[in-house]
Inverse folding.
């Protein structure tokens, strides 16, 4: 065989082999990166659900005992804010939305009570009018 | 008057707290079910 042709064949084979190895390596690296990303996503999802479960438990406690032996405390919403974008079951999403909407209402009422209790009031001693003037 | 108004506000916050407690319990139970199903 012509030595030049042989050299060309060797060169071509080397190029093809190199290209093939590069493609295989790239595919392996891509799949590995994809697996890592999936694992990271699953881990983050599990963490968010765990945080949400803790927050729900905490908020049940913050709402106070059924016997009303102590005043309710403002509920926390940080885990819900973080988990809001998650793809969840429809019933679960609805239950969470309802719970946190009532929680927000509770926070607002607690703020009103606190503000009212902290404000000095001068009451008008006239039983006909039942008016009171707020002193700020 | 002030005291009765404050009592009214406190009672209202307790009523909302009762509803919130129930709603958070419901959400907690549904979340536990969801996680048990592997969600």
């Amino acid at each position: 065989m012509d030595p030049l042709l042989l050299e060309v064949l060797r060169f071509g084979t080397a190029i093809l082999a190199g290209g093939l190895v590069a493609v295989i390596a790239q595919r392996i690296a891509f799949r590995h990166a994809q697996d890592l990303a999936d694992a990271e996503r699953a881990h983050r999802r599990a963490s968010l659900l765990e945080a949400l479960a803790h927050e729900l438990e905490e908020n049940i406690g913050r709402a106070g005992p059924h016997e009303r032996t102590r005043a309710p405390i403002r509920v926390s919403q940080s885990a819900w804010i973080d988990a809001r974008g998650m793809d969840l079951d429809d019933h679960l999403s609805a239950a969470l939305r309802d719970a946190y909407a009532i929680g927000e209402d509770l926070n607002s009422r607690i703020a009103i009570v606190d503000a009212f209790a902290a404000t000095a009031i001068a009451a008008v001693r006239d039983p006909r009018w039942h008016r009171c003037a707020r002193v700020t | 008057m002030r005291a009765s108004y404050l009592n009214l506000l406190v009672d209202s916050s307790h009523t909302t707290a009762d509803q919130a407690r129930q709603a958070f319990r419901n959400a907690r139970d549904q979340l536990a079910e969801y996680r048990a199903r592997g969600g």
About this structure: Chain A has a mean pLDDT of 90. The interface with chain B takes residues 49, 52-53, 56-57, 59-60, 63-64, 66, 68, 71-72, 75, 88-89, 91-92, 95-96, 98-99, 102-103, 105-106, 109-110, 112-113, 116-117, 121, 123, 130, 132 of chain A (CB under 8 Å). The longest strand of chain A covers residues 121-123.
